[in-house]
From TrEMBL, chain A:
InterPro entries: Ketoacyl_synth_N, Thiolase-like. SUPFAM superfamilies: Thiolase-like (SSF53901). Residues 35-169 form the Beta-ketoacyl synthase-like N-terminal domain. This is Beta-ketoacyl synthase-like N-terminal domain-containing protein. Coiled coil: none annotated. GO terms for molecular function: acyltransferase activity.
UniProtKB/TrEMBL annotation, chain B:
Keywords: Transferase. Belongs to the thiolase-like superfamily. Beta-ketoacyl-ACP synthases family. One of its GO terms (biological process) is fatty acid biosynthetic process. It holds the Pfam family Ketoacyl-synt_C. This is Beta-ketoacyl-[acyl-carrier-protein] synthase family protein. SMART domains: PKS_KS. The lineage of its organism: Bacteria, Pseudomonadati, Bacteroidota, Chitinophagia, Chitinophagales. It comes from Chitinophaga tropicalis. CDD domains: KAS_I_II.
């Protein structure tokens, strides 16, 4: 079972200087999403998700897919936060229905279905640091059920001042480690390679609160073994550490035990820390496999790029959510 | 070989009370949990009715065996109680080596704590900040910790079909052998956020809701939680649990029409019901009862009615909405109604649609309005639709109709 990625698109903070408090992705022109009257009602999070999804679909002649699966850790929190703040300030006297509807966590997958008239499977995962991992697992499950099907999948989370303030008040961000960040990424996937597959996702594993290092190490070894390889077969590690000692307490030692020559990119340095940062990591993995080199702005790599066939994404969120994603060249030979 | 999916346990809490027995008694007696608002602090308390769970957060915490409710959202207190009912029936850690997952669902998550702290900024200093308990992931993570589960967990949020989709995902993971056992369900607390949101959309009724009635004029919101334990056929051989139902079919489709209302032909619901029948290898005539989504909004009941007519094509179709009992519990509705559907199968009874007097003139089907015995009942369908065009339908069947 493999999930072939046929196309991808992303809105990321990669080529942009971080703002003082957080990484902000460069906004494209959202005007392509529809009439100004329509797009004005959409919150930025929706626009980010819809734009990147539509860009991904534009490679298809008919923009037809069998289903849509989206992930988000905090969804359209700008709308929810605004609705909530207004309720407090006017003591429930007035409420804006449009803002309420935008605050539905599944607004992106719902709007996408309407935009492209996709009447098939439609789901949204709202599961913290596992939101995107849940999406990948669902897509892999679909390939097991019927490998012919083609899905649009993706994830998005948005950072904005009120969210930052509340995270800071809660002691969740703004103290140590990488800056908070944001981004949206979409992928066109199928159980079949299609004519021009960019790469394939072989496996995804999520572990909640693994407690101790040896268990995490054992799970990683088993994970690689199930895909018929070991750590020496990995050509690039996309490492989701937070640069926060407390949170990296299991993941950093795990990475330190890997071969010293294994090139590694601490990807949250570039996209910032957010719930669905592993979607950025997968987007980055696709760029590397597709172009055979790292994007220019990625400067923190311990070894020069070599031929990359297999990429391991190893990430953690808040020191409790751990995940591994194995991405490889679509035409990789088992003995490579 | 593809695995068959059985239900071996369930737990529920809603405005009807705590547990399967309290739920069954209320359904059999035609007793509604929808009443004037008593527990939620809101300026609208005199103008709306709701299916609240009749307890404060502190009372819920004590019932769940916790020292205090501090730092825990009402949504999670409700979830924990529903899960505790399951734990009182079976040991979910027995038979080591089984891969056990947790799939929960919610729309409001820890919204109640956010409201509490933002409405009372001075009084809540020193409490854990609401951002720690706000998102769906933090709710499910806390439940994973309470249950001691470390492998796969997921949180689905597809508006009012959320927990139906949690059941569907759990069934799919078992069928493909990716998990051996999975606890599926969801919870939503009644909050000012949802009350004011639905109110602003003019979707709330001020009197007891009247699903499938010509005069229906909106929703009564509710709150609650329910979970099911699903086991695959190979797991059942190890646990020797007696299955109470089988998940025989399901469909997840999208209406692709409008953010908050269904297409005139009820296409999303139609396709979901058709997909569920196809998956279950059943004919429409095999379905003994449909537990409808039936929110009592003018749009939902008309379009769901049209969709049911298209699928079943028979005026004697037996269906009802049980939302007049529980209120519309949003993310929890799918699994609360799954529990009700399974109780219906177990007791071979159809629970009546309350508050009904006048048929919808545009439809030729009418809901069941009295407690009706249904001896030999085999298959029940449960519908859940929601914002964003999401449409899900699940078929629960007698476990004995299938050889293990």
């Amino acid at each position: 079972m493999s999930l072939f990625i046929q196309h991808t698109s992303g809105i990321t903070p990669l080529n942009r200087q971080p703002e003082p408090l957080y990484h902000r992705a460069a906004d494209p022109s959202y005007a392509v999403l529809g009439e100004p009257a329509q797009t004005r009602r959409m919150c930025r999070h929706s626009k980010m998700g819809l734009y990147t999804a539509m860009e991904c679909l534009n490679t298809l002649e008919h923009r037809e897919v069998d289903g849509i699966i989206w992930g988000t850790g905090i969804a359209s929190f700008e709308s929810a936060g605004r609705f909530l703040k207004e309720l407090v300030s006017n003591n429930e006297a007035l409420a804006n229905p449009a803002v309420f509807v935008q605050s539905s966590h599944n607004t992106i997958s719902g709007q996408l279905a309407q935009l492209i008239q996709c009447k098939g499977y439609n789901s949204t995962y709202y599961n913290g640091g596992f939101s995107f991992e849940n999406v990948l697992m669902d897509a892999l499950l679909h390939t097991m059920e019927n490998e012919e099907q083609q899905f649009l999948i993706g994830a998005s989370d948005e950072m904005f001042p009120l969210y930052y303030d509340w995270l800071k008040d809660g002691g969740i961000a703004g103290h140590t480690g990488y800056l908070p960040g944001e981004g949206a990424a979409a992928f066109l996937v199928s159980g079949k390679p299609g004519s021009t597959p960019l790469c394939k996702v072989d496996q995804v594993l999520q572990l909640y609160n693994p407690g101790d290092g040896p268990w995490l190490q054992e799970e990683l070894n088993n994970f690689l073994e199930r895909s018929g390889c070991d750590i020496n077969d990995i050509d690039l590690l996309l490492l989701g550490t937070s640069a926060d000692q407390e949170k990296d307490t299991l993941l950093q030692p795990l990475a330190d035990r890997m071969p010293a020559a294994l090139p590694r990119i601490p990807f949250k340095k570039y996209c910032g820390e957010y719930y669905t940062a592993t979607a950025f990591a997968l987007w980055l993995a696709v760029q590397v496999l597709q172009n055979g080199q790292y994007p220019e702005s990625i400067t923190e790599v311990n070894n020069p790029p070599q031929e990359v066939k297999r990429i391991l994404v190893a990430s953690q969120w808040q020191g409790r959510y751990y995940s591994f994603i194995l991405v490889s060249d679509p035409f990789i030979h088992p003995n490579d | 070989m593809k695995q068959t999916v059985f239900v071996t346990g369930m737990g529920i809490i809603s405005s009807l009370g705590y547990g399967r027995t309290a739920t069954l008694e209320a359904l059999q007696e035609g007793r509604s949990g929808v009443e004037p608002v008593q527990y939620l602090e809101t300026r609208h308390h005199q103008h709306v009715l709701a299916g609240e769970v009749k307890a404060t957060n502190d009372e819920l915490a004590i019932l769940a065996g916790l020292r205090s409710a501090e730092g825990i959202s009402r949504t999670n207190l409700l979830s924990l109680l529903a899960l505790r009912e399951i734990l009182s029936q079976q040991d979910i850690h027995a038979h080591s080596g089984l891969r056990t997952g947790l799939i929960s669902s919610t729309t409001v998550g820890g919204m109640d704590r956010a409201e509490h702290q933002l409405f009372h900024p001075g009084e809540t200093n020193g409490e854990t900040h609401f951002m720690h308990t706000y998102d769906g992931g933090s709710c499910t993570a806390w439940l994973s910790e309470q249950l001691g589960l470390r492998h796969y967990n997921a949180t689905i949020s597809t508006a009012c079909s959320s927990s139906a989709n949690a059941i569907i995902l759990g069934a799919r993971l078992l069928e493909q052998g990716l998990l051996d056992r999975v606890i599926v369900g969801g919870a939503d607390a009644y909050t000012r956020f949802t009350l004011n949101g639905f109110n602003s959309l003019q979707l709330l009724d001020t009197v007891p809701c009247r699903p499938f009635d010509e005069q229906r004029s909106g929703i009564n919101l509710g709150e609650g939680a329910a979970y099911l334990v699903l086991e695959s056929s190979s797991t059942l051989n190890k646990t020797k649990h007696v299955p109470i139902a089988r998940v025989s079919g399901y469909g997840n489709t999208n209406d692709a029409y409008h953010a908050t209302s269904s297409s005139p032909d009820g296409n999303g619901g139609y396709m979901a019901m058709q997909a569920a029948l196809e998956k279950a290898l059943l004919q429409p005539s095999d379905i003994d009862y449909v537990n409808a989504h039936g929110t009592a909004t003018p749009n939902n009941d008309l379009t769901e009615g049209v969709a049911m007519q298209r699928v079943f094509n028979r005026p004697d179709l037996r269906f009802s909405s049980t939302k007049p009992y529980t209120g519309h519990t949003l993310a929890a509705a799918g699994v609360i109604e799954a529990v009700i559907s399974i109780l219906s199968l177990q007791h071979e009874q159809i629970f009546p649609n309350l508050n009904y007097s006048q048929p919808i003139s545009a439809l030729n089907i009418k809901p069941v309005t009295t407690l009706t015995a249904a001896p030999g009942m085999q298959h029940v369908m449960s519908n859940s639709f929601g914002f964003g065009g999401v449409s899900s339908s699940i078929i629960f069947s007698q476990p004995k109709t299938h050889s293990i």
